[in-house]
Design brief:
about 300 residues; alpha+beta; Glutaredoxin; 5-stranded mixed β-sheet; two-stranded antiparallel sheet; 8 helices; 13 strands
Length: about 300
């Protein structure tokens, strides 16, 4: 009988071990492969190097880990002087973007897309994070910023959003200082009478340290959420968010968060051990109960015949 029990336990362990091995192998195979050449080619083709000369010197030099100057003075949408530091040091991360409100197309598309992301984001704008939209045109005024804020808050359509999204204007000197600190490079193009500039979101911790950049004009809600949680050092969001951040890492080539195979395998291994422990605990408990029941029945039988 004892040999049969040991045989059963060995079979259970073997099955669970095989499952863990297959799971680990599958994760390694799927997520540890190099990017195929054809995919790299497509990505390179989507962002060609032979841009027109007008874009020379335009782009973003990422400065992850740098601290922006919090003493720079701007004007908020009401026209009041404020320092950038006003929006930091309160335990909430900040999403920063640069905009040019008289931009004929790019900035309005980017801000409208971002407003829709904020609308769908399950984090409290103004409660859990703040947003700063800074005009990089020194001729734009607080009145224009106020109209832009009103416009995009209608898209966000969430209570309290006006306390979390701030539209700033400022002097050329302070704009340049903030742009340089964040690596945002733009320039005025005389031939078209407008600015050439990149588009991106920048995520900063509550002490003004740059933690992440998301490039482009459309920002998936899931990526923005992860970047905000990352900037907060896990202090906002749910326990599930922290688990997700452990399983995902930012991939600059994909401009998105992708599965971190090594950490995922660690979690898979831990779950396998938990399952093994649970199965064995249930098995041994039932076996113990069966033994106690048999001993009780034998004792009762011996008493009756005694």
């Amino acid at each position: 009988m004892r040999n049969n029990k040991i045989h059963i336990i060995n079979k259970i362990l073997a099955c669970l071990g095989l499952s863990a091995l297959l799971l680990t192998g599958f994760i390694t195979e799927v997520f540890s492969q190099e990017i195929p050449d054809w995919l790299v080619t497509q990505k390179s083709a989507a962002r060609p190097d032979n841009l027109p000369a007008v874009f020379d010197g335009v782009g973003i030099d990422e400065k992850l880990g740098a601290t922006i100057p919090l003493s720079l003075v701007f004007q908020d949408e009401s026209g009041a002087d404020v320092t950038i530091g006003k929006y930091f040091g309160n335990g909430r991360p900040v999403v920063l973007n640069f905009a040019y409100h008289n931009c004929p197309m790019l900035c309005s598309v980017m801000l409208e897309s971002f407003a829709k992301t904020l609308r769908d984001l399950e984090l409290g704008l103004g409660d859990e994070f703040n947003v700063l939209t800074v005009s990089f045109s020194a001729v734009e005024t607080a009145d224009l910023a106020a109209r832009q804020k009103e416009k995009y808050l209608k898209t966000v359509d969430r209570p309290g959003a006006e306390e979390g999204w701030h539209f700033l204007t400022g002097s050329e000197e302070n704009i340049s200082a903030l742009a340089q600190a964040t690596g945002f490079k733009f320039k005025w193009v005389e031939s078209t009478n407008e600015y050439a500039h990149p588009a991106a979101l920048m995520f900063l911790s509550d002490d003004g340290v740059i933690t992440r950049y998301l490039h482009g004009m459309a920002f998936p809600t899931v990526d923005v959420r992860r970047a905000i949680v990352e900037a907060s050092r896990g202090e906002i969001g749910t326990a599930f968010d922290r688990i997700i951040m452990y399983c995902y890492r930012y991939d600059a080539t994909a401009n998105s968060y992708v599965i971190h195979a090594q950490n995922l395998m660690k979690i898979a291994g831990l779950l396998t051990l938990l399952v093994v422990g649970l199965v064995l605990t249930v098995f041994w408990r039932r076996e113990r109960q069966r033994q106690v029941r048999n001993m009780t029945e034998k004792h009762v039988g011996a008493t009756e015949f005694g």
